[in-house]
Structures are given as C-alpha cells and as structure tokens.
Amino acid sequence: MKAASLPPRLKCILLLLPSCGQSSSFPFKLPPPPPPPPLLRLLVRSRPYSLTVTATATPTGSASESCNMLNTTEYHNATSNSSPSSITIIDEFTRFCYQRDLPRAMKALDSIQNRNVWAVPVTYSELLKCCLSRGAVHQARLVQKHLFSRGHQPETFLVNILLNMYVKFNLLDEAQALFDQMPHRNVVSWTTMIAAYTTAMLNDKALEFLILMLRDGIRPNMFTYSSVLRACQGLLNLRQLHSSIIKTGLDSDVFVRSALIDIYSKWGEPRNALHVFDEMVTGDSIVWNSIIGGFAQNTDGDEALNLFKRMKQAGFMADQATLTSVLRACTGLALLELGRQVHVHVIKFKQDLILNNALLDMYCKCGSLEDANSTFTRMLDKDVISWSTMITGLAQNGFSRAALELFESMKASGTKPSYITIVGVLFACSHAGLVEDGQYYFRSMKTCFGIDPGREHYGCMVDLLGRAGKLDEAVKLIHEMKDEPDAVTWRTLLGACRVHRNTDLAIYSAKKILSLEPNNAGTYILLSNIYANSQRWEDVAEVRMAMRDRGVRKEPGCSWIEVNKQIHAFILGDNSHPQIVAISMKLKQLIWRLKELGYVPQTDFVLQDLEGEQKEDSLSYHSEKLAIVFGMMSLQKEGTIRIRKNLRICGDCHVFAKLVANIERRNIVIRDPIRYHHFSNEGCSCGDYW
DNA sequence: CTAGGGTTAG
C-alpha cells in the first residue's frame, strides 16, 4: 500500500456513544498531530493500536468523564472476555477503510453496528470513497443505514459524499430522497444536486434547485455556477446568470469562465464567449480549448485557427482536445494540408479515440479517402462514431458500394449502428440509386436496430425515390413523416423535381421552403430560375420583388483553394487576387479549347438579367472556375485540385470541371455545402445528380 | 464533500 493513501492524521480514536443519552458530539478535543513524513507514516501504520490507546486514554475536559469511564469499562470487559475490544474493532475498521479493503471493512462495520459504537467521521468518508471507486452501491447503502442508525445524525459532509455517490451511480431518486431527509444542507449538498440534474439534462430541475437554494439562504459558489450554467435554457437565462456571477465576483474562477465560454458558444454566440475569454487575466489550457472548440463548433474555423495560433504564442501546449477542435476547423474549411500537419501531432497522442475520429472525419470531408481509409484501418479502437464517419464519408464521396460493404463489416464487428449510421447507409443507397437496398434498410431499421426513422432518414428516402423519378412516392413519404417536414426535406424534393423537370411540384416545394426559411436567398433564386425555364417572366419578376421587399441578399459565390499553406479565395465579382489577370486569361483560353471540343456554356445558370455574350461572360467568372484554373497554374501537375465553395455548384461549372478533369488528366474535387464532386476522366462521383 | 475542454447526419 502506498504511503500517500494513509490518512493525513491517523486518528484512531474510539468513539463510544454514551448510552446515558448524551449528545453524540465527541467531547475530546485532540490537537491535530502534524502530518508525519512518509517514512514515519509507514511506521505509524504498522503500530496503530498503541496510538489508539494513548489517544483515548488522555481525555480532556470534565464532560468527558462519563464517556471515558464507559470507554475504559468497555475496554476492560472486552479484554477480560479475550474477545476483541471495541477499540480493537474500531481500529481494525479504520485500518481496513484506509487500506481500501472493502470486504473486511464491511465486516468490521457490522461489528461496530452491533456494539453500538462509532468511528470518527473521516473514516466513513474513506469507506464511502472506496465504495464509490468500486461501484459498491449495496455496501454504500449499508454504510448509510449505519450512519443514520439509532437516531444518529451524520455530519453533513458525510451525507454529501453519499449524495454524490448515488448521483455517480445514476440513482437520482435515491439521492433526492437522501437530500430531502437532510436536516442541514450546505452549498455542497445543493451543488451536488444541481450538478446531478444538469448532467441528467434535467435543466428545469437544476435551475429550480438554484432558486430553492437561494431561498434557503445558501449562497452559490463557483462550483454551483459552473454546474448550473450548463443547464441554462437560453440566452436570457444565461445573461441573468452571467450578471449575478459578475456581482459575486466569481467570474474570475477559471471553471466558471470556461463554463460561460462553452454556454455562450452553445447558444450560438461565440463573440460573447470571446469577450468573456479576452477579459480573463490568467487562464489555463482548458479555457483555451473551450474557446477554440466554441468557434470550431460554430463553423467559424478561421477564428478557431486564429485562437489556436494565439494559444501557442501564449505558451500553452495543445492537447488532444485542442487538436480535435483544430481538426474540426480544418474539416469545416476543407484545409487538407493543414489537417495533414495536425496529423503529425496527433500521432504523439497514442490512440485517442475522439481525436482519431476527428482526424478520420477531416480526411473524409477534405475528400482524401485514401488517408481516411488508412486512418480508419490503423485505429485500434473503433466506436459507432468511427464506423459512421467512415460509412458516411465513403457515401458522400461517391463510394456507395464500399459504404454498404463497410456497414456489413460494422455489423459483423458487433458495433451497434446508431441513428446517424443509418442516415449514412441510406445516403449511400440514394447516392448510388440503390432503390431496393434503401427501401430494405429503411423498412428494417426499426426491427433490426430498434431505431425509429427520423427526419433525416425520410430525407434520404425522398432523395432516393426522387432520383429514381418516383416523385409521387416521395411526396407520399413526406406526408407519412411523424415530424413536420423541414426545409431540408423540401429542398431534397425540389432537387428531384429539377432533375425530372416537374415544374409544378418544384414550385410547390420551393414555396414550402420559403415559408420555412424566408431569408434563404438560394431558394428565391432557384424558384426564379424554375419560372424562367418555363418562360413565366411575370412570376420571375414577382420573386425578385419579394426578395427585394424582404431585403434578402444573395451571398456571392466564393471558392477556396489551398496552395502552399495559403488559402486563396475567389469571390464572384472580386478582382483582388494578385494573379487575377493571368488567371482570367488562362480561363479564357481554356474555355476556347473546351468549346472546340464541343463545350456549350449553359446559360440557364446565370441569374442576372443578361443577354448573349454578356451572359456567358458572367458565367465564366464563377468562382470555382477561377479556382480550378488557379489550381492548374500553381499546383504540381499530377496533384488533385481541391476546392471548397459556399454555394451549390451550378450545372455549367459541373460540366466545365468534368471536361477539364478529362482533358487535363487530373482529379478535381469540389466540395459544395452538401455534396462532394470527384471529377476524373471517368466523370463525376455524384453521377451528375445533385 | 461539489465544477471546466474534444468526434459522426442535415
């Protein structure tokens, strides 16, 4: 046994409950012996008996007389019977508790209980800690019974330990019952309950307890706030809590601060989180991780990477959590090269599951399935998330068959698929036009895996049926949904309508989307294009008017490409790129070459009211075209050109990319907000459907 | 005796 686990003060004091009805408070006041040096502690442990007797034999104060007498009597009786004395039993009990010998300690507890004697409170706390670490609920309950036996009221801190234990064992009702019967509750008792309800995601309950606590006159401390913050129900709530934290000055606590940062981020206000962060005088790496994670999760990868830089400058080391967030930022920004650099650091942390999952996702989302695959293969531990990530990654990048095969391996491995896994599987089916497989998985998900189909599953099925041209069935399915169909669902149907040229249903879906998302410019433009295609100019004008009235602005198309650790952004109508002249020239030449091979620019995709030449010109400056040309100019001849863009790729750029990939014999990967396009000389992985 | 950071879909 380690010396460190010995009690700081080895007080093997015998506590005898006076049968004369005296109060249970122990009358002896022993000056705490100074903590012995490690070597001495070992000595002390080996001779606890003599220590005990000395201690109990030197009572102070007159009130102790009777106790002492009882004490002594008990001692003599015990010795004359040649059975172990109460002193010995308590001593043994104490020793077993500190040695974490649970079975023996429990046996000793039994004897103690029978003899109506008590050990000092700290001993019980040792025993309870032992129960906690072993998950010994039953034993803990016996300890509780003992502590409350014969009308005895245990110290509040002991009850707090018990409370915490029930909470950790997920026995909230039992914790609550114990809390209810406590005569005195301190901050710790309240905070334990609040933290319990927060963890159980019973946010109302947690907040209610905060109020009850305040009513009871107990002032929250930093522990309380850092727990209760996670339970807040919205920004209003959060601001109230924040201001009371400031009033009490507890905002200087790093725990409270990181909780504030997390919660502001969670409620979509990373700027406020940054404010809280920047006000901090001294922080630690966890607070850095909080703020970096906050931006990474709020799809502001740029700021996350900025902060990561600042973190390093401030001299903090990146750990697993930091790198996970950094990878997530790379994922969002499609920064494959930076992600690769992070990978080098990931290797330092041996097999961290979450970190590996983030790495895997980064490679998938950056379109490098080779790297994703090797990462996946090298992972020793895989959980549902690893499998789901890889399945979805394969499916999104156009490898549907491989995705479905991997799903079979997953089932064979014994990992239970989750809701999200099935989304990936159905996505794979819809992507590859595997109607029957998709319907099979959709129908059997409930019976095979106990997962109720949700919105996303219906969405995949709408896509599946829609692609196959079964628009009626798709609509029927939407009506069968338990949840209200959301904009994503209608957008899926709209996509199918465009491909199969069902104008009426397209207009119907577009209107549905607009009613759900009145500020999405893309939908207005889509609707206006549909009208334009069927020459309904009045309707086009009406849509334009509605857009103007509601102040909806179209986000300019933007494409990003990473070259030499730098990100080059091309924005429609922006000529600030230093090489823009050369790029434009090269693009013109390329278009010329393509035209000779039969390329006809598809002017339907121009959204402005332009005509002829002009129309074509504006089209040729779509940001992805510029990015492709820039990639050809600045990347190695063989290298894949990887582009990320903010809007869906238009049909003309799609044809363009396909042709370029073909004549230039190089792979082009374009990731738009929801689909991946891998262009090679065999065409596009999306199968020309998106 | 009570508290903080990271991963998969759309």
From TrEMBL:
This is Uncharacterized protein. It comes from Vaccinium darrowii.
